[in-house]
Amino acid sequence: MPLNYSKWDALEISDDSDIEGHPNVDHKSLVRWKQRDIHERREARKRRIAEFQSILQLNAVLIPRVKSIIKDVGEGGPDKYSAIVEQLTRAPSNAKPAGTGPNQASFDVILGNMLMKIKDDLKAKGITKPDTLELTEAIQGHLDKMIEKDNETKEALEEEEKEAKKKITSDDIHEGFDSTKLAEHDEPKPEPKKKGKAKADPAIEVLNPGVQMKDLSLESSTAEEEEADDEADERVPDLSPTLLQFSKIKVGDFEGSFRFMQAHPKEFKREGVYDELVIGGFRAAIRGEKKYAKQCIHQALIIQYCDKLGKDGVSLFFKRMFSGDPRARQVFDNDLKETFNMMMSRAENAKKEEEGKERIQLVAEDPGSTITFNVPEGPPPENIKLEGPGTENLDPEEVRKALQARWEIFESFPENFKAALKTGKLDAVNDVLGNMEVTEAEEVVKFLEIAGILSFSKSGVVDETGKKDAAAPEGSAAGESGSTAAAVPAVNAAPDSAAGAGGDSGAAADGGAADGGAAE
Question: Whole-model pTM?
Answer without folding.
Answer: 0.33
